[in-house]
């Protein structure tokens, strides 16, 4: 049987090998650029600075870490150096230890020594060589403020690093989707099927999946716009919660409530041009929510096929072994010879025939 993929109407020039037509890439990255047309949007990012820094790449976060420490060291070093010059400290004006005047900061001779004193103060190194005297109360107050600000910089840096390391984004790397999707009659019902698996031994809790059917349309002015229709996915047992003990097939039932109805037009994919799949679950160890995304274009959705069954096999040590070799394997269904048992052409369940009784 020849493999047939579903292609929407009017999309003969649709290039499936190019990712420029996708709203979501196969790796789950959104390809939607938001243009507000107003620079005021930057203020909204600054109001939620922590989320902005967490979402930033590691190189920008590292740059912010370094600049945060360098700026505080430099600003307070300039203050200490200026206080010493204003007070005419003996070390600054090269009088040495022969002067009877008490300096504001002992053993601060130039800007370099003031910078070292700033580092020692902020990080409580305490070498014991340089120190503030009681001659200048405003310098003592400056040391107090630097100590408070230094603690704040340390706490923010540690919180940001911990939050970035704890993000659930990396947990989703072990969740994989099949490279193709299938549409066929299974158990007397038309179904859209996708296989999903998780390589990690710790299970995701309360896992659910949602699909978005994206349709490209044109308005009266000839401009293209996108329409969305949401569909639900269920497990092979019919539950809304998916269990990934081994690779599982989640499906969407195509009935009168589905945007893919009626089945006679499934080979046209109902005019849709992309299927976006959102898979969500709760990480068992951190109780954080993780979302994994992928997408399927018409050439990746095969009509009249279903996935090869994957069943764990018992080993000699009474443990189960599951192979991922057939994860993307599909096989044809002779759906033309099947009937939608239990449904009429309008998608309503058939009423059972009455049982005749004979005397």
Name a few traits of the molecule.
single chain, alpha+beta, 5-stranded mixed beta sheet, elongated, disordered N terminus, disordered C terminus
Structure description:
The chain has 359 residues and is an alpha+beta fold. Helices cover 24% and strands 23% of the residues. It has helices at 41-47, 49-55, 58-87, 111-122, 137-166; strands at residues 105-106, 131-132, 175-177, 181-186, 189-198, 204-218, 224-232, 248-253, 274-283, 289-296, 301-303, 305-307, 313-314, 320-321, 330-332.
Strand-residue fraction? 15-25%
Largest sheet: 5 strands, mixed
Helix content: 10-25%
Our count of helices gives 5
Mean pLDDT: 76
Spell out the helices and strands N to C: HHHEHEHEEEEEEEEEEEEE
Distance between the termini: 51 Å
* SS content category: alpha+beta
Given as residue ranges, the uncertain stretches (5+ residues, pLDDT < 50) are: 1-18, 335-359
The tally of beta strands, per DSSP, is 15
Evaluate the radius of gyration. Answer: 33 Å
Q: Which word captures the global form? A: elongated
């Amino acid at each position: 049987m020849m493999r047939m993929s579903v292609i929407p109407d009017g999309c003969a020039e649709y290039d499936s090998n190019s990712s420029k037509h996708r709203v979501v890439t196969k790796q789950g990255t959104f390809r939607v650029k938001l243009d507000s047309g107003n620079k005021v949007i930057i203020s909204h990012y600054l109001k939620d600075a922590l989320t902005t820094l967490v979402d930033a790449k590691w190189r920008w976060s590292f740059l912010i870490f370094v600049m945060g420490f360098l700026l505080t060291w430099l600003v307070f070093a300039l203050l200490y150096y200026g206080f010493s010059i204003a007070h005419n400290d003996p070390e600054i004006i090269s009088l040495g230890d022969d002067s009877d005047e008490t300096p504001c900061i002992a053993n601060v001779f130039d800007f370099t020594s003031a910078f070292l004193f700033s580092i020692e103060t902020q990080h409580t190194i305490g070498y014991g060589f340089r120190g503030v005297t009681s001659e200048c109360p405003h310098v003592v107050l400056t040391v107090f403020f630097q100590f408070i600000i230094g603690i704040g910089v340390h706490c923010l840096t540690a919180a940001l690093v911990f939050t970035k390391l704890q993000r659930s984004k990396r947990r989703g790397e072990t969740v994989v989707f099949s490279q193709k999707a299938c549409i066929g009659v299974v158990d007397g019902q038309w179904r859209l099927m996708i296989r999903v698996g998780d390589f990690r031994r710790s299970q995701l809790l309360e896992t659910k999946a949602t699909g978005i059917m994206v349709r490209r349309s044109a308005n009266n002015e000839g401009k293209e716009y996108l329409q969305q229709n949401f569909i639900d996915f269920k497990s092979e047992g019919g539950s809304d919660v998916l269990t990934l003990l081994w690779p599982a097939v989640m499906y969407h039932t195509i009935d009168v409530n589905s945007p893919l109805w009626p089945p006679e037009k499934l080979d046209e994919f109902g005019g849709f041009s992309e299927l976006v799949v959102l898979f969500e679950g709760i990480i068992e160890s951190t109780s954080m929510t993780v979302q994994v995304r992928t997408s399927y274009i018409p050439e990746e959705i095969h009509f009249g096929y279903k996935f090869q069954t994957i069943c764990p096999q018992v080993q000699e040590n009474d443990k189960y072994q599951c192979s991922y070799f057939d994860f993307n394997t599909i096989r044809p269904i002779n759906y033309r010879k099947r009937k939608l048992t239990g449904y009429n052409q309008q998608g309503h369940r058939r009423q059972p025939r009455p049982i005749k009784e004979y005397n």
